[in-house]
Structure formats: C-alpha cells, structure tokens
Design goal:
Length: 127
C-alpha cells in the first residue's frame, strides 16, 4: 500500500501537480521544472486573455503552505520565466519552498540538475 506520493510537473504540469497536491492528503512533496505555478501572473506577463474561472494553485494557498515544494526554474526561460515562481512564492509564504535557478530554457538544460536534485531531500526548516 502506498502511503504517500510525490508529484512532479513540467510547464503547465507544475500547476496541475500543485492543484492535485492541494486536493489530496497523501502528497509528500511537489517538484516542478519550468512550472507555470502562477497562471494568473503568467497570463498578465504575456498579455494574454485570462480564463474566465481558472483553478489555480494560489486558490489553495492555505493547504499548499505546508506541502514541501521545489521549483526548478530556467534563467533563460522566455515562456515561464523565473518571475512566475517568484510571484507564486511571495504570495504563498510556504513553510518549505525551495527555488533552484539553473542555466536553462523552457525545454533544455534540466537534465543534470534533475539527476542531482530529484532524490535530494528538500531544505526545510523543522524537517
């Protein structure tokens, strides 16, 4: 029997992983790569027409504050730039939230850091 799971998402999958984590009680941690974790900020950033009623991670901030999270962001990512995770982090105020900036684009440059960090414990206070 599985007692806990880890969710991992890339790009829009980062948003989905966080929303799923908020809706479940068995998620041990979430990791994202180039994750669009704040779609409202992202939509405004790219001057796109917003969705009518989006379901976003920050709607679940009270639950997500206690979920350990690592967000790996690409410094050269023009699609989901580091500012998206920075905006999310500032609004979440999570107890265990690690942001790792790497020299990567939206789709390339994550292999080495993922191999190094995917099984590395997160740097959380009190854990």
């Amino acid at each position: 029997m599985v007692e806990s799971i880890e969710l991992v998402g890339h790009s829009g999958g980062g948003e989905i992983a966080l929303v799923l984590a908020a809706m479940r009680d068995d998620v041990e941690q979430v990791q994202t790569l180039a994750g669009n974790v704040d779609p409202v900020y992202w939509t405004n950033l790219h001057k796109l027409t917003p969705l009518q009623s989006p379901i976003t991670p920050l709607q679940f901030r009270n639950k997500l504050r206690s979920v350990p999270q690592r967000h790996i962001v690409g410094l050269n990512d023009l699609i989901v730039p580091p500012a998206v995770v920075q905006a999310y982090s500032a609004q979440l105020d999570g107890a265990c939230l690690e942001v790792v900036e790497v020299n990567a684009t939206h789709t390339e440059g994550y292999d080495a850091v993922w191999q190094r960090l995917s099984n590395t414990p997160m740097l959380c206070k009190g854990r």
